[in-house]
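Need a sequence for this fold. Nothing fancy.
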């Protein structure tokens, strides 16, 4: 019986590897390529509020392309994409600062990055006027990658 308990304890302690997808990765361009869905809003006071999508079947997201282009897609209540925000020539420096887009939407700093989560913060709060539940001053967004 003691051997069975010991085997179970050892299996539990060493058999479960940590999920490498939740570990921080280097903040560089190749690690941000892909689709990132808006999960939360960071308010100026640091509080985090869940992001509300107006469309029940599509979520708002941005996509970073290998060509240094980035596009943000926002879905309206009728699930039709609003005019997407687009940037050609995104620059990401070694400190995680995104720039050269000329839009508040893409100007700021990636403060946390894993394979599945990105925290992006603006230098100064911006006003979000896209849809009622998310309106107001925001300091950043939290995105997830699926």
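Here you go.
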């Amino acid at each position: 019986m003691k051997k069975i308990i010991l085997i179970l304890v050892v299996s539990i302690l060493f058999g479960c590897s940590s999920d490498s997808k939740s570990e921080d990765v280097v903040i560089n361009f190749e690690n941000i390529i892909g689709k990132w869905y808006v999960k939360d809003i960071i308010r100026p006071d640091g509080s985090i509020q869940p992001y509300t999508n107006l469309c029940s079947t599509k979520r708002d997201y941005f996509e970073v392309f290998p060509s240094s282009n980035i596009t943000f897609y926002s879905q309206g209540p009728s699930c039709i994409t609003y005019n997407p925000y687009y940037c050609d020539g995104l620059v990401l420096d070694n400190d995680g600062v995104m720039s050269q887009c000329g839009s508040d939407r893409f100007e700021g700093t990636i403060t946390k990055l894993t394979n599945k989560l990105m925290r992006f913060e603006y230098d100064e709060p911006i006003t979000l006027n896209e849809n009622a539940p998310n309106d107001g001053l925001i300091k950043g967004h939290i995105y997830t990658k699926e």
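For context: The beta strands are 34-42, 48-50, 61-64, 69-73, 85-88, 91-92, 97-99, 108-113, 117-128, 136-144.
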